[in-house]
Design goal:
Blueprint: E1 8-12, H1 24-32, E2 37-44, E3 50-52, H2 96-106, E4 109-114, H3 121-132, E5 141-145, H4 148-157, E6 163-167, H5 174-180, E7 185-189, H6 195-203, E8 207-211, H7 216-224, E9 229-232, H8 235-241
Parallel strand pairs: 1-2, 1-9, 2-4, 4-5, 5-6, 6-7, 7-8, 8-9
Antiparallel strand pairs: 2-3
Helix pairs in contact: 1-2, 3-4
This protein binds SN-glycerol-3-phosphate and magnesium ion (MG).
Magnesium ion binds near residues 39 and 41.
Length: about 240
């Protein structure tokens, strides 16, 4: 008899519904609320420093208005979350290196979503891989992106990394695309997931991870279809239900 496997609960942007997104504080809350992993967004500053932030520009979550490409590492000291008078080191834009160390400390797997805001894919791949080179947790990590050219560059430069392709709508060529980058995972918007897609992905040996799953009823349905991981702003809600 097949025993159904529960999907992993992955905190989206750390745990965006419970803390300031993509911060060390969000990582800690995700761990405390029953997540097994986190998804975080990586971007590159003008000096090549890889940081964890969703937007290409300041102003939505963090103070300021400049594009990240006009910032350098020391500038991070002057930026604080909007709505907070003062931030601690846990509530600021972290470097990718610091965030990975923090995830290690609390025992969470990491899905590093690399955003590409107009960079050359190979250059960006090299920047991110330079941070990951001395990080020993290949086994529990995934590099994901909407940008298939970036993933292809990583597949060439660092073939041992697990790669996930993020898509909102599944094109008819999805199987060929995933084969082309020797993917580990299809990271699909929850509205586009069907039982048939999950079954087909599994026949190829790919995981299916779905985002952003905040409703426990949706989580239960996707779990019943065999989705492997649920990326959520509210790991607490899903941990309570599943
Ligand atoms: O990793 C999937 C998801 O995070 C993609 O959307 O905009 O929240 O980074 P976004
Ligand atoms: Mg993301």
């Amino acid at each position: 008899m097949n025993v159904p496997v529960k999907p992993k609960i992955v905190g989206h942007r750390g745990a965006a519904g419970l803390a300031i997104e993509n911060t060390l504080a969000a990582v800690e809350i995700a761990a405390r609320c029953g997540a097994q992993g986190i998804e975080i967004d990586a971007q590159v500053l003008g000096d090549g420093t890889v940081v964890v932030h969703h937007d290409a520009q300041l102003g939505r979550v963090m103070s300021g208005h400049l594009p990240l490409q006009q910032l350098t590492l020391p500038d991070l000291d002057k930026i604080h979350p909007l709505g907070l008078v003062a931030s601690t080191h846990k509530e600021r834009i972290p470097t990718l290196r610091d965030l990975l160390a923090h995830a290690d400390a609390v025992g969470l797997a990491v899905n590093i979503e690399v955003k590409n805001d107009g960079h050359n894919p190979e250059w960006l791949a090299r920047q991110v891989l330079s941070v990951l080179a001395d990080w020993p947790r290949h086994d529990s990590a995934l590099i994901s992106s909407f940008d298939i050219e970036l993933l292809a560059a990583i597949a060439l430069l660092a073939p041992t990394w697990s790669l996930g392709w993020i898509v909102a709508d599944l094109p008819s060529s999805w199987v060929e695309t995933l084969k082309g980058i020797r993917a580990t995972s299809l990271n699909l918007h929850e509205a586009a997931v069907t039982e048939a897609v999950v079954r087909e992905a599994h026949t190829h040996g790919w995981l299916v991870q779905s985002w952003t799953v905040n409703e426990p009823d949706v989580a239960e349905r996707l779990s019943g279809w065999g989705v492997d991981a649920l990326i959520t702003d509210y790991p607490d809600r899903l941990a309570d239900r599943l």
